[in-house]
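Risk register update: the risk that structure generation would not scale has been downgraded. Supporting records follow, first protein first.
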Amino acid sequence: MKTALLLLVALAVAAGPARALRCHVCSSSSNCEKPQNCAANARYCRTRTKVEPLLGNLVEKDCVEACTPTHSLQGQVSSGAAATQCCQDDLCNRSLQSSAPAHTLLPSTALGLALALSLLTLLVAPSL
């Protein structure tokens, strides 16, 4: 009974609200920085750089649910050419040349896995 209660409490904690991802959210002609908390469903920080020959480059940073990186800035010659960078760590879209991996474990995911492994150990080990 004690083990079952502990299991329920640990599952409730692990399934509780996850900490929101933080990304820079802004739009500018240069590398802008404006940290914000993302919506709960946002999994990626995205940076898009668009080429506008008469206006210069436009940098847009935001939080998104899904992101596909692209690299189509062909010498910044054609209007509308763009590049998209994606990352999943807090404030990882600070730099325009972000090299953050697109598939890292969020801290809440790592915590959930650790709790699940601990519970499995408690259930398999002999009772105290």
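Supporting record for the second protein:
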Amino acid sequence: MAEAFIVGAVRTPVGTKKGALAGVHPADMGAHVLKELVNRTGVDPAAVEDVIMGCVSQVGPQALDLARTAWLSAGLPETTAGVTIDRQCGSSQQAVHFAAQGVMSGTQDLVVASGVENMGMVPMGANVQFALDNGLQLFGEGWLKRYGMQEISQFRGAQLMCEKWGYKREDLERFALESHQRAAAARDAGHFDGEIAPIGGLAQDEGVRPDTTLEKMAELKALRDGWELTAAVASQISIGAGALLIASERAVEQHGLTPMARIVQLALQGDDPVYMLTAPIPATRVALDKAGLGIDDIDVTEINEAFAPVPLAWTQELGADPARVNPNGGAIALGHPLGATGSILMTKLVHELRRTGGRYGLQTMCEGGGQANVTIVERV
């Protein structure tokens, strides 16, 4: 099987819901990272065969095949196609998988994997609002027969995880505080500078709160009475974009590209859709087993902090070293622009491996429907 390499990785700073990027059209934000990716790698854009873009709420400004409109908005060649995909929060990590699989199959040589989401302009859930507005069921009879009318939501899933693993509010708040502290330290040390393409006057991630404290978190109201969850222990509603260039060995030689990392393993796994957020645990086990690696072989892990119990349970169940998990903070501090997060996390991961000299990196994230992607890469 042919090898697939990541030869470029760039992201915007992650903006807050009402911050500097709120008015940036998603196609223009996508165009920004696509153009920057082409400029940084020096690749001939006409040689790119496809642009695969993750986006969850594909309505309004994010409709009409955002991948294609973003590429064209960047002034790049009309000959390159684009497709927009939705695997919920893992959409642009799945874009990386599809791009790598195209290259590894030998049918493609250069593919862009990307993601965009402006949650300030297109609210979360906008693409299901039609059903709600028109009295239509979101789930069909087959689903209702299997799972009934019970609530299916990320919020309930996170609370169910707290109950299953015994996490209390204080555990979650300590984790959230450390996420902010790690992100602030990384930002101040310039660890993100090389991966960020400033846009809209914003050059740094906007959601980091270096002055937050456990005392401030304790003042917040629980999301529901009797729950452990508050807004402080959940990912932020955010805005951002990321893009990576995936290349074959032939393309690396032909275009004079410099590999950053090699794709080692791609895995998917489903789990209980009611719990929704637990699938990274079994998916990671599958990926490590297929790769012939142990958790101690992984130097850096990026796991999306949708809610604090997700990385807490993952770290506990896998026996991972907490210092290697989200070493520069996660979505609680940096934000979670849904369909863009997978590409942003992979960009963070490969740049951190290069910065620290680590060998193996692993990325995973929980996804709607009780799913998870896992990607293992090796620094080149």
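The CA atoms of residues 173 and 214 lie 7 Å apart. On this basis the risk owner (M.S.) recommends closing the item.
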